[in-house]
Amino acid sequence: MWKFKNPMRTAGLPALLGCAVLGLSACASSIWTPDAQWGQAVRQAQKVQTIDPDAALRQPAESGTDGAIAKAAIDRYQKSFETLPPPVNVLNIGVGTGLGTSGVR
């Protein structure tokens, strides 16, 4: 019995390999060379935003606080979220403020 060969299988594999070779060869060489100033804007922005570039070379300065004061400040901050603020009634906004135009005719 004669078997029909799939033309996509016989012709598709060499075509696929050829496309792969052409695609990879396009990445092999590049005519683009980076500019000498490439990335200079980022480096300049980092320099401007750094407060003290030599901070890692020195001992840390005294902050003027101790652990008890810092813990009390953190506790006050966290307790401020325990009680919710009173809800605002949005239906009464602008009512009774005397800014209406009922007196003007």
Name the shape in a single word: elongated
**Helical amount:** 40-55%
Our measurement of the CA-to-CA distance between the termini, rounded to an integer number of angstroms, reads: 104 Å
Low-confidence parts: none
Q: Number of DSSP strands? A: 0
H-E string: HHH
Mean pLDDT over the full residue set? 78
> What is the structural class?
mainly alpha
**Individual helix count:** 3
What proportion of the residues form beta strands (DSSP E)?
A: under 5%
Report the sheet with the most strands, covering strand number, pairing sense and barrel closure.
none
Computed CA radius of gyration, to the nearest angstrom: 37 Å
Describe this structure in words.
With 105 residues, the chain is mainly α. 41% of the residues lie in helices and 0% in strands. The chain has three helices and no strands. The chain has helices at 7-26, 40-49, 67-79. It is elongated, with a radius of gyration of 37 Å. The chain starts with 6 loop residues before the first helix and ends in a 26-residue tail after the last helix. The mean pLDDT is 78.
List the defining traits of the structure above.
41% helix; elongated; 105 residues; mainly alpha; 3 helices
Secondary structure: elements and pairs:
Elements: H1 7-26, H2 40-49, H3 67-79
Kindly summarize this structure in a few lines.
The protein is 41% helix and 0% strand.
